[in-house]
């Protein structure tokens, strides 16, 4: 009877295209389905291990993984057991957890089939951000012509970015055997501190980062072009000079120029403009842009579903919670073409879904709704947003008469929309923090 059950299980596995065989029987690997291991190993809690004493009897030795840095390996919580017939297709690489906190790695008690809620912390869809919204670094407040003391509630221009300034950024120098790198403790990304100031085509920029990986630059071998979301995370919106919109202490001598990303847009690739004068959009691969490479613990999985949006109703109003960022958005919004000051006032005074703490989103909050690659000409999966421009509460600190806006047709953010003009059909959507 036991053998018949084993045969039936094998037929079931082989008949499913989505399953793949998992290595078993060796030290640190799952036991065979009949609860045995290769001699002289013994099956202990579904894992093959030596027995007979020692603190590490049930542990997998580091030198027995047999895997290189870029090869996926099974962990205790992602390998299959006798009661788990589907292997974890989202298994992380060896180095994926090296830059994360200890509590982000899988635990020995996690043996259930992975789903959206149980994927490794370092896994996200390739079109999304992989972290909560970071601070824009804009702490000053502005009217239409200059900087002002941040207005009080009920006053004109109340509700702008500076009224809700966050905790700032958390960069840190990392000294290696040769260059100094920059750790971003909020996004877990590791960046080049210095660039060579050379504008390159996209293919040359990609080859440049690949070359850094091959040369073990900064003792790391996983350098690559950043995704657009990763590169946008470096923008600092408080700059008021000709310098680049970036933290000048940690990233000195950064050109006020545009930089390539690895994110495709049709036949082109996105770039991010750090000048504060132009939009961040996409360009043909032969165009010349700067390059800054990144090393990342994140594993981008195109097959990971984007299931962020949860509709809830309060009173007669329906709102949408973003489970990735913790923000709550209006589901239905008006198409009135307000001026910037009017958009601020509208959100600050809004009583919606039995809540009165709505605000106009800052540019990082607004940009988080973009999911690159969702469609070629509609780059968001947010249920009700169309392809128009939307106001943010963030002023262009280098040109105070203008504010930052986002567009959801092509994934553009731009700093050049005059606050006192709305000839582009700029819309207003309001946001609040989840209780």
Task: Tell me about this structure.
By secondary structure, this protein is α+β, with helices and mostly antiparallel strands. The protein has a domain at 308-433: Mannose-Binding Protein A, Chain A, CATH 3.10.100. The chain is 11% helix and 19% strand. The chain has helices at 2-14, 202-214, 228-232, 340-349, 363-367; strands at 42-44, 47-49, 123-124, 141-142, 147-148, 171-175, 180-184, 190-192, 258-265, 268-273, 282-283, 294-295, 299-300, 309-314, 317-322, 327-330, 389-395, 402-407, 412-418, 431-433. A four-stranded antiparallel sheet has the order 6-7-8-12, with no helix packed on it. A four-stranded antiparallel sheet has the order 14-15-16-20, with no helix packed on it. It has a three-stranded antiparallel sheet with strand order 9-10-11. A hairpin with a 5-residue loop joins β7 and β8 (190-192). The protein is globular and about 75 Å long.
Features:
435 residues, 11% helix, four-stranded antiparallel sheet, disordered N terminus, 5 helices, Mannose-Binding Protein A, Chain A, 20 strands, globular, alpha+beta
Average the pLDDT over all residues and give the rounded result.
79
What is the third-level CATH name, the topology of the domain at 308-433? Mannose-Binding Protein A, Chain A
Low-confidence stretches: 1-22, 52-114
- Please describe the biggest sheet, giving its number of strands, its sense, and whether it closes into a barrel: 4 strands, antiparallel
């Amino acid at each position: 009877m036991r053998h018949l059950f084993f045969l039936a299980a094998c037929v079931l596995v082989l008949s499913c295209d989505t399953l793949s065989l998992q290595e078993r029987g060796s030290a640190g690997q799952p036991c065979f389905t009949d609860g045995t291991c290769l001699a002289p190993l013994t099956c202990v809690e579904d894992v093959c291990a030596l027995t007979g004493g020692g603190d590490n009897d049930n542990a997998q030795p580091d030198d027995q993984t047999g895997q290189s840095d870029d090869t996926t390996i099974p962990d205790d919580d992602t390998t299959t057991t006798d009661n788990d017939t589907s292997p974890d297709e989202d298994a992380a690489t060896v180095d994926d957890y090296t830059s994360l906190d200890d509590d982000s790695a899988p635990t020995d008690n996690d043996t259930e089939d992975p789903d959206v809620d149980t994927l490794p912390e370092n896994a996200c869809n390739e079109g999304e951000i992989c972290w909560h919204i970071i601070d824009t670094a804009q702490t000053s407040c502005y009217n239409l012509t200059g900087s002002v003391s941040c207005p009080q509630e009920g006053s004109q221009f109340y509700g702008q970015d500076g009224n809700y300034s966050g905790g700032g950024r958390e960069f840190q120098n990392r000294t290696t055997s040769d260059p100094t790198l920059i750790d971003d403790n909020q996004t877990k990304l590791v960046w080049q501190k210095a660039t060579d100031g050379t504008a390159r085509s996209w293919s040359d920029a990609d080859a440049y980062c690949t070359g850094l990986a091959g040369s073990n630059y900064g003792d790391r071998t996983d350098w690559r072009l950043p995704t657009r979301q990763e590169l946008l995370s470096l923008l600092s919106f408080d700059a008021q000079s000709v310098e680049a919109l970036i933290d000048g202490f940690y990233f000195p001598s950064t050109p006020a120029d545009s930089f390539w990303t690895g994110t495709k847009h049709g036949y082109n690739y996105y770039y991010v403009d750090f000048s504060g004068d132009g939009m961040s959009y996409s360009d043909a691969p032969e165009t010349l842009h700067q390059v800054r490479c990144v090393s990342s613990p994140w594993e981008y999985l195109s097959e990971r579903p984007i299931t962020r949006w949860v509709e809830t109703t309060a009173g007669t109003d329906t709102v949408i919670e973003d489970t990735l960022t913790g923000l709550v958005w209006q589901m239905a919004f008006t198409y009135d073409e307000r001026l910037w000051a009017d958009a601020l006032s509208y959100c600050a005074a809004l009583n919606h879904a039995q809540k009165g703490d709505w605000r106009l989103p800052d540019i990082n909050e607004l940009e988080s709704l973009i999911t690159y690659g969702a469609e070629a000409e509609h780059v968001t999966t947010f249920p009700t947003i169309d392809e128009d421009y939307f106001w943010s509460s963030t002023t262009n600190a280098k040109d105070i008469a203008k504010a930052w806006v986002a567009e959801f047709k092509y994934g553009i953010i731009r700093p050049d929309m005059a606050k006192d003009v709305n000839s582009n059909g700029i819309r207003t959507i309001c946001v609040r923090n989840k209780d």
